[in-house]
Inverse folding.
């Protein structure tokens, strides 16, 4: 019977540690969202890239924020985008 008590105690300890880190991460995310800069973006152009399986497009965004009036960003897409059909 002792072995099962150790097992339950270990599971309880692991769950308490996981709950602690989940609450800590939630607080960090909440602070980040509260202090972040809200922005909107509009796709103004598409860059066409040819590959083995056809063409892929990278969007060029125009963002509007309170701090920077206009900013053009070229989106760098992950390689997985090339596999989307």
């Amino acid at each position: 019977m002792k072995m099962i008590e150790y097992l339950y105690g270990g599971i309880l300890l692991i769950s308490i540690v996981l709950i602690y880190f989940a609450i800590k991460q939630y607080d960090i995310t909440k602070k980040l969202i509260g202090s972040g800069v809200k922005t909107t973006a509009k796709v103004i152009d598409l860059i066409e890239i040819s590959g083995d399986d056809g063409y892929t497009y990278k969007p060029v965004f125009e963002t509007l924020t309170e701090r920077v009036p206009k900013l053009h960003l070229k989106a760098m897409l992950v390689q997985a985008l090339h596999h989307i059909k």
Remarks:
- The radius of gyration is 23 Å.
- The beta strands are 40-51, 54-64, 71-74.
